[in-house]
């Protein structure tokens, strides 16, 4: 009987952990603080248009906090400016994954949906982004910002923005 319990306990623990929705170790407060410091350093480099300096710093940031979509988008935009389109795509896909996770953790909030739409458009997946706009409209019909976004065709305005085009794939 003791052997069965010893065998069953690890299986129960693995099943419980698999349902947590995390695919790695917990991100500590120290890691988040380190990432914030590094992100600030990268922002300074970007302001100087020193993208080559910003890229490895942002790569460290997303390694520390892979659940933060903003950092992934920043890394992708820096890589796009450096002409590293494939690496930019990888970073934007990291952002999409982070925002999808955020949407799962906060299912009643439309903000992660807006961010997913933005990243899908950055990836050049415009039809997927339009479909996500429609799903967002259906899921959040009472949210004023969602209605305004749809009614004023802000998605199309975003696609036409020269600054957006600069970093989109």
Give a description of the structure.
There is one protein chain. By secondary structure, the chain is mainly α. Helix content is 78%, strand content 0%. It has ten helices and no strands. Helix 3 runs antiparallel to helix 4. The longest helix has 21 residues. It is globular and about 40 Å long. The N terminus is likely disordered.
List keywords for this structure.
169 residues; mainly alpha; 10 helices; disordered N terminus
Estimate the helix proportion, in percent.
over 70%
Q: In percent terms, what proportion of residues is strand? A: under 5%
Spatial gap, N to C terminus = 59 Å
- As a whole number of angstroms, the C-alpha radius of gyration is 19 Å
Low-pLDDT parts are 1-22
Give a short synopsis of this structure:
The protein is mainly α and 169 residues long. The protein has helices at residues 2-18, 29-47, 51-64, 69-81, 85-105, 111-122, 126-139, 144-151, 154-160, 162-167.
Task: Furnish the topology, listing elements before pairings.
Blueprint: H1 2-18, H2 29-47, H3 51-64, H4 69-81, H5 85-105, H6 111-122, H7 126-139, H8 144-151, H9 154-160, H10 162-167
